[in-house]
Specification:
By secondary structure, the protein is of the alpha+beta class. It is built from 4 helices and 9 strands, in the order ααββαββββββαβ. The protein has a 7-stranded mixed β-sheet. α3 links the parallel β2 and β3. The protein is globular. The termini are far apart.
């Protein structure tokens, strides 16, 4: 009887220890995100961040240094006109969740776009190429899969290299 009690206690401890490390495996669809701790899955407080400053974030155990875009002018310009991506990329914060498309106006390098809502990655658009010489009205647009409140732009191929997937948590 004592052995069964100890086995049960060890099993319970193993489950409790594993749960915090298995968050990503439980967040495969957006409907399941509500079961995650609200401290991880909540709208970011964009007032904390300085427009044009840098911010370290964590995705899938990887730390990324990103330039912050939260003011209208910074968001509109994004990474356009630059010869190379600064640091690991750029993070865009929006005051409310919405379905907002991106384009490659005046871009000089290819990108991966990581779509985020409430700190959960809801989609990834990979290897978007610049369109030099294409008139503005004919540029391709890239919509998110659902409403988003945060977008991360990385160098093309970086999302795959970092094994970033839908359901990963963005830790600010």
């Amino acid at each position: 009887m004592k052995i069964e009690k100890y086995i049960f206690m060890l099993l319970a401890i193993a489950i409790l220890v594993q749960t915090p490390f298995g968050i990503n495996c439980y967040a495969k669809t957006y409907n399941s995100y509500v079961s995650l701790p609200s401290t991880l899955v909540s709208k970011p407080n964009i007032d904390e961040y300085i427009d044009g400053g840098t911010l370290n974030v964590e995705i899938n155990g990887q730390i990324l240094k990103l330039v912050v875009a939260k003011e209208r002018n910074t968001i509109m310009k994004g990474l356009s006109g630059r010869n190379k991506i600064p640091f690991d990329g750029m993070i865009f914060f929006f005051s409310k969740a919405r379905k907002l498309s991106f384009w490659m106006k005046d871009m000089k390098f290819s990108l991966d776009i990581v779509w985020v809502r409430n700190n959960v990655i809801v989609g990834i658009t990979e290897n978007i190429k610049p369109e030099p010489g294409v008139p503005e009205e004919r540029l391709k647009t890239y919509p998110p899969p659902t409403e988003i409140d945060t977008v991360i732009e990385l160098s093309a191929g970086r999302a795959k290299q970092l094994n970033i997937k839908e359901g990963n948590i963005l830790i600010l």
